[in-house]
Amino acid sequence: MLLLIFATLFGVLLNAGDALQIQCYQCEEMKQNDCSTPEYIVNCTVNVQDMCQKEVLVKPDGIHYRKSCASSGACLISSSGYQQFCTGRVNSVCISCCNTPLCNGPRRKRPTPSAATSNRPSLFLFLTFLLLPLLPVT
C-alpha cells in the first residue's frame, strides 16, 4: 500500500505542470518593436510545436525581430546553424529557442529566491526520505 502511495506521488510530482500546448509571441520582421505585447500571443500546435523561437536580425536600418512557435528539432537545428552569424554587428542573425510559455518575449528580471518559492525536486526528495523508512524491506 505504501509503495502504491509512493509511486503515485512520484508520478504526480514528475508530471505536474507539463503542458501539451505552449504559447509564444509571433511576428514577422518587426522593426525596433520586439512584438512582446498581448496582441502577438498565439497558441502553438499541440504536440507538434513545443518550443518558441526568437530571431534577432541586425540590419543597416536597425534591429528586426521574428518570433514564432517551432518544433524542437527544427528550432535547435536552425539556432545551432546560425551560431556563427550571431555577432551583434550589421547583418548579424541570432536565433534562440526556449520551451516555457511566452519565453521568446522580453527578458525578465530573475526573481529573488524566497522560502515560499515552489521547488518540486526538493519536495520530491523530502517525500522520499519521509516515506522511505515506511517501505517494507525484503
User: CATH topology of the domain at 20-98, anyone?
Assistant: CD59
How would you sum up the global shape? globular
CATH architecture of the domain at 20-98: Ribbon
- Which structural class should the secondary elements be placed in? alpha+beta
Q: Which strand order does the major sheet show?
A: 2-5-4-6
The overall pLDDT, averaged over residues, is 76
Number of strands: 6
Tell me the number of helical segments per DSSP (H or I, 4 or more residues long). Answer: 3
Rg over CA atoms, rounded to whole Å, is 21 Å
Order of helices and strands, N to C? HEEEEEHEH
Low confidence ranges = 1-17, 115-120, 122-132
- Sheet with the most strands? 4 strands, antiparallel
Quaternary status of these chains?
A: single chain
- Note the beta-strand portion: 25-35%
Top-tier CATH class of the domain at 20-98? Mainly Beta
How far apart the termini lie comes to: 15 Å
Helix content: 25-40%
Provide tags for this entry.
138 residues, alpha+beta, CD59, four-stranded antiparallel β-sheet, two-stranded antiparallel sheet, 26% helix, globular, signal, Ly6/PLAUR domain-containing protein 1-like isoform X2, acetylcholine receptor inhibitor activity, Snake_toxin-like_sf, disulfide bond
